[in-house]
Amino acid sequence: MTDNRKTQQQASRNNQVMWTEEEDALLRSEYLKTTITSLAEKMGRSRYAVFERVRALGLPGKQKNVVLPWTEEEIEYLKANYRTTQKRELAQRLNKGMNNLYCKATELELIRKSSTRYQGKVVRCGITLDVESREFAKKLGKGNISDGIRIALKRTAEREKR
Question: In the 8-state DSSP scheme, what is residue 112?
């Protein structure tokens, strides 16, 4: 009996579905580009089954801190939705990590809503300041840069109301 035949008999005894060449090809092409969860959903298999098949195929492990390049479509989507969509949701839709998303947004100089209060909730804004502005914010906030930024934003909002 051939090895392939033995594997098929073992799979049928264990009530398992054999892997097809098409599924293996999909794993080889998509594994490093997407998550195990999304592959499992796409293939109609459990995360564990996909993980085990990846190991059986000897595919290289995903390394942490490896950043896949951004496509033009991803950059355009980020630009169009950064101001109005939650960062976590953007990261999921783009299949990127939160840090990767934040770094790209900073690189593109994308800005979220400037208000520190939005619909009654405190919103944290990633603001990059040059050295001079940082020193000014520190003086304004009596040593606390974040407080200085809040004070400056509040004063600006008050001036705009007048």
Answer: -
- Ranges of beta strands (E only) in 55-137 are 117-118, 121-122
pLDDT per residue over 28-76, tens digit each?
888 877 888 888 899 999 888 988 898 888 887 665 545 567 889 999 9
Read off the amino acid at residue 68: L
Alpha-carbon distance of 126 to 106, in angstroms, equals 8
Cβ neighbours of residue 67 under 8 Å, at least 6 residues apart?
100
Instruction: Sketch the domain layout of the chain as residue ranges.
Output: 3-57, 67-111, 113-162
Residue 12: is its pLDDT beyond 70?
no
Interval 116-135: pLDDT, tens: 444 444 444 555 666 777 77
Nearest 5°: phi and psi at 117?
-120, 130
Pick the closest to residue 86 from 64, 119, 108, 55 (CA basis).
Answer: 119
Give bridge partners of residue 117 from the DSSP assignment: 122
Predicted TM-score (pTM) of this structure: 0.35
Beta strands in the chain (DSSP E): 117-118, 121-122
30 φ, ψ (degrees, to nearest 5): -105, -15
